[in-house]
Amino acid sequence: MEGVVERGNALAALKRVRQNKGSPGVDGMRVEELSAHLRERWQDLREQLLAGTYQPRPVRRHEIPKPDGGTRTLGIPTVLDRFIQQAVLQVLQPLFDPDFSEHSYGFRPGRSAHDAVRVAQRHIQAGRTWVVDVDLEAFFDRVNHDVLMGRLAKRIADKRLLKLIRRYLEAGMMVEGVVREREEGTPQGGPLSPLLANVLLDEVDKELEKRGHAFVRYADDCNVYVQSQRAGERVMDGLRRLYAKLRLKVNESKSAVAKAQDRKFLGFRFWWGPKGEVMVRVAPKATEAMKKRVRSITGRARGGSMKAVVAELGTYLRGWKGYFRPAQTPNKFRRLDGWIRRRLIAVQLAHWKHGTTAHGQLRARGIAERLAREAAAHLRQWWRTSNHPALNTAFPADHFFRQGVPRLAA
Predict the structure, then answer these.
(1) 257 and 131 in contact (C-beta within 8 Å)?
(2) Contact assessment for residue 219 and residue 197, using Cβ atoms and an 8 Å cutoff
(3) Pairwise CA distance, residues 340 & 351, whole Å
(4) Which residues lie closer than 8 Å to 352 by C-beta, 6 or more apart?
(5) pLDDT of 233-242, one tens digit each?
(6) pTM of this prediction?
């Protein structure tokens, strides 16, 4: 605990919380207010942490939609608790991380989802074309506190720190003004939850290593690559037993033993290239989720200027493109670029509102009189007219790129 409250560690935690931003917790304190609060209260807070008497506040419930439907429940800690969790994480990560399995990639320094996908790709290329794709049922909501604390106590001698982590696990969740107590789970939303998940699941990783399996795990997503369906069924049975020891349950409806190209992993799918090489593409569900978001941003019923639409879309697509850059499907990206361009042209048509405005704007962009008149006459048919030759000429392929909307195929 002395390491947690050490000045340099506390300053580093404050910097990270500021960078991550995020919304307020149950007390309403914003990230921008944290520095002033710590200047005023740090000495008292430090003494509480060292004495083992600090009591975290309940987390605020927040639900976000999942790409494949349904919602995921987040527990948003107060800004102060995010700061303390971050300070604890910075002390514990160097203690635990070096001993984690080399097959684990989620929420670890120097490792990423892209690394996990590349390793999976190599396993398939090596002939392990069947995958044991395991999804854990409500993992972050089902973590058993006693089992997790037992794993932590093997490495942490400081009782104050163990007590603090237990209090974070047991901190209630505020729902419609009422605090609901929690007897299991480590809600997503706090800096400490990913490390605690890795501590718990590392036991299964080590057992898979012992048995010589080729596998990749990213948080609670675990894929084991084998050479036959029969071998996969045996591995799946073994995993059910291993997870049961941790009081976790395999979600049978979302888990399967299948051909690797028939399952998605971290939003990607694998496919066989023309020369027999294993290649990576964006999973169809991930593509549909992206298109749904683009439709929302470019919806004609939304208010806001064209500049605002372009700015929001550019921010979203830069993040999406950055995550899916390993995908080896330039033609698909080019088609998506064309579709996004049409969406933006349709937004522009909606902003012009009147045929006379559209006609004047098109003429100003050098469009011939006949084509400008023809396009303006069908102004209200936004999607159909967005592909009219007049609009394709007025808004060439690089028009929105120059305004800040990235090309996915670039």
Answers:
(1) yes
(2) yes
(3) 17
(4) 358, 361, 379
(5) 999 999 999 9
(6) 0.88
